[in-house]
């Protein structure tokens, strides 16, 4: 079956220059990834509580990272929770280049998607973690949560989490570009993550350019159960809190 692609980019789908990473300690990187994991999750009535926790936690982060989180927190405080939820759905659930599922950028709705997801599951198991049954393992907030939590006790698990983000870095960059083209408030949250990741190598940057140009493949092979689906509240991993709230409270 022939694979088809999205049209060529327009002014609405620009290619952004990569961000230069900022110096950050391992602890600062973990805090950044946990804060981003929470803020990129599906909005709910608990969002104000999450935002308050994040606002306190990011005070000690590098200024460019903290500023982006603070700007997003300021934005959420001006929005009704129901309006924020509707904006989230319009952004992440209805636009292919804003997918929260990392394997989707490289494999789209093709046969390769299933294999890519299996590899994610195996990586989680190797790190000593399990993903919830109602969530896909390549969901960006879940991967960021793994990155935040795995590094606390296990250098090997931290390397696995870094490998998952690094091997799908071009997807993160496409997401950043797509959000920026929409002037989405979530742009800064993804930028904060990118600022704590290694600089893009030439091969990854090339793949990023190709994906911005063409978009994810769209060969349909009956993988609807593995494609982007309705996001929703879920406790993805073991309990965790930025500053006191339980994971169940924060991610619900």
From TrEMBL:
Ligase keyword on record: no
Region annotation (Disordered) ranges: 1-27, 227-252
Stored NCBIfam families: narJ (TIGR00684)
SUPFAM superfamilies: TorD-like
Alphabetized PANTHER family for the sequence: NITRATE REDUCTASE MOLYBDENUM COFACTOR ASSEMBLY CHAPERONE (PTHR43680), NITRATE REDUCTASE MOLYBDENUM COFACTOR ASSEMBLY CHAPERONE NARJ (PTHR43680:SF2)
Keyword list, A-Z: Nitrate assimilation
GO biological process assignments: chaperone-mediated protein complex assembly; nitrate assimilation
GO molecular function, one term: metallochaperone activity
Pfam family, one: Nitrate_red_del
Name the UniProt record assigns to this protein: Respiratory nitrate reductase chaperone NarJ
Gene3D superfamilies noted in UniProt: TorD-like (1.10.3480.10)
